[in-house]
Specification:
Blueprint lengths: L6 H15 L9 H8 L12 H4 L1 H12 L3 H4 L8 H18 L11 E6 L4 E6 L10 E10 L5 E6 L2 E2 L10 E4 L2 E10 L5 E9 L10 E3 L5 E2 L3 E3 L7 E9 L7 E7 L2 E6 L62 H16 L3 H4 L2 H23 L4 H5 L3 H25 L12 H21 L4 H5 L3 H20 L5
Length: about 475
């Protein structure tokens, strides 16, 4: 609001300026002259320009655009290189990760409403869930706007303070095996969830790491509780996002380019920003943002719950992350350890019973007979779920192969079974157990994938099965030197 000074106030300011400048006050003049001059009023000083007031309509439009994901509208309103621009870029790229993972990032748009107060220069934001998913209502304001002289938004203050304190800016990147993996954005919510958005430029087709481990500055290794990831395509850029609860910036992300090639990315703390939770309030890396504590949040009793999906079913909404103790399954977590054990003793295979080697080799061959046509047809869970008949047939076979392997391994390790082979040699005992667990997971996930599933919405089930299938492949690879 512009202000107008009274004549008395203007006169007082004039005297103060004169005193501060060290000049003497003018000599007293005759009353007649003074009276005549009094009749002529001094001009009223004009208030300094207020960029926020002058651009208030743009600020309100910016807030609304941010909350419905209209980044093409929001970005031109921001100052280049500012926290506001980084906020919009985060929403844009995380939305890409969500979309490629298979769900609509605009699901909650109708639940937001806005009430701006131009006098206070605040925008009140309200969320009420209209989807029936049970998200808690929330109300908060954005204020203390910083705008450049030419009207571009630089920053604001939300529920947790200025956004320049809650948004990561410096980003690490690494190259390996035809892939360039970059930390596109890093974000930390009020509840202590660190969200990492990766940009992967790939010269090869392959699978992403569905659950890279994050080792925080406290030295604790964390697996993602939520993720958005999809198959990598040769010559294309993919955006992947992961959420780590009870974490902090300043740690290392261990990302597997392939099953044998990790890269380490630093999630930098110093010199960066951390994003205010309301910047990404509706842009979490899964449709279950409970751990991040924002308006779409919904707590569950034990497992991560995906809005619109029952607990225990992974899928595109969470990047196929497994709801068990290890999101990547036993294979990927243990493959390096088991391979190291095998390589430490070049003659270990001699001590493995012929029966065990024969059993594993038979099941591995059955796995390869299915995996090869899957790769040759360039199949993916998405293509199968969307109607590729050849890929659907292969996925059905995956479930059958999992059934057979599960029965075979568990009977071989069950003392009450007629097929019991006795205790496996010590050096492969854990490997046998983990392989049996992986086969059982394929069997379990495969039970949800059938012709009826493919006739409807089978995306979630297809991702579940493919994740379990990949983990079983990891376990067979870990047997390498024993066969």
């Amino acid at each position: 609001m512009k202000r107008t000074l009274t004549l008395a106030a203007a006169a007082a300011i004039t005297l103060s300026l004169a005193a501060c400048s060290g000049t003497e006050a003018p000599a007293e003049k005759p009353a007649t002259t003074e009276a005549a001059e009094t009749a002529t009023a001094s001009p009223t000083p004009t208030a300094e320009p207020d960029p926020v007031a002058e651009n208030w309509d743009d600020i309100v439009a910016f807030v609304e655009a941010v909350y419905v994901g209209e980044t093409d509208t929001a970005m031109p309103l921001t100052a280049k290189g500012s926290p506001a621009a980084e906020c919009v870029a985060y929403i844009r790229d995380n939305s890409l990760a969500e979309q490629t993972a298979g769900f609509d990032p605009h699901e909650f748009d109708d639940g937001y409403s806005f009430d701006d107060d131009e006098r206070k220069q605040e925008v009140a934001i309200s969320f009420r869930d209209t989807t029936g998913n049970g998200s808690d209502p929330q109300d908060y304001t954005w204020s203390d706007w910083k705008v450049t002289d030419d009207g571009k938004i630089k920053s604001w203050t939300g529920a947790s303070g200025p956004i320049n304190k809650v948004l990561g800016k410096k980003h690490d990147k690494q190259k390996a095996k035809g892939q360039t993996v970059k930390v596109a954005h890093a974000y930390q919510s009020n509840s202590g969830t660190v969200v990492i958005v990766l940009k992967v430029d790939s010269n090869v087709s392959g699978y992403p790491d569905y659950a890279p481990v994050y080792v925080g500055p406290d030295g604790v290794a964390r697996k993602p509780t939520q993720a958005n990831a999809t198959d990598l395509v040769e010559g294309a850029t993919s955006y992947l996002s992961y959420a780590y609860t009870d974490a902090d910036f300043g740690g290392k992300l261990k990302y597997l380019v392939d099953y044998e090639t990790p890269v380490t990315l630093t999630i930098k703390r110093t010199g960066g920003w951390r994003l205010d939770p309301q910047c990404g309030a509706k842009r979490q890396p899964s449709r279950s943002p409970a751990s991040a504590g924002h308006p779409n949040a919904r707590s569950t009793d034990e497992d991560v719950e995906v809005a619109g999906r029952p607990r225990g079913r992974a899928g595109p909404a969470d990047g196929g992350v497994h709801r068990g103790d290890d999101p990547r399954g036993p294979g990927r977590d243990g493959v390096d350890e088991h391979r190291a054990v095998a390589e430490s003793d070049a003659h270990a295979g001699v001590r493995v019973r012929r029966e065990w080697a024969s059993l594993v080799a038979k099941e591995r061959n059955a796995y390869t007979d299915v995996q090869k046509p899957w790769e040759e047809a360039i199949c993916s869970p998405t293509t199968a779920a969307r109607g590729a008949v050849d890929c659907q047939a292969i996925m059905l076979t995956m479930g059958l192969v999992g059934d057979t392997a599960s029965i075979t391994f568990w009977e071989a390790t069950d003392p009450d079974s007629e097929a019991y082979m006795g205790d496996p040699p010590l050096e492969v005992a854990e490997l046998v157990t983990n392989t049996a667990i992986a086969a059982d997971e394929v069997s379990s996930m495969g039970s949800h994938v059938d012709t009826d599933c493919f006739a409807g919405d089978c995306v979630s089930e297809a991702f579940d099965l493919h994740r379990a299938w990949s983990d079983l492949g990891d376990m067979y690879a870990a047997w390498g030197s024993y066969l």
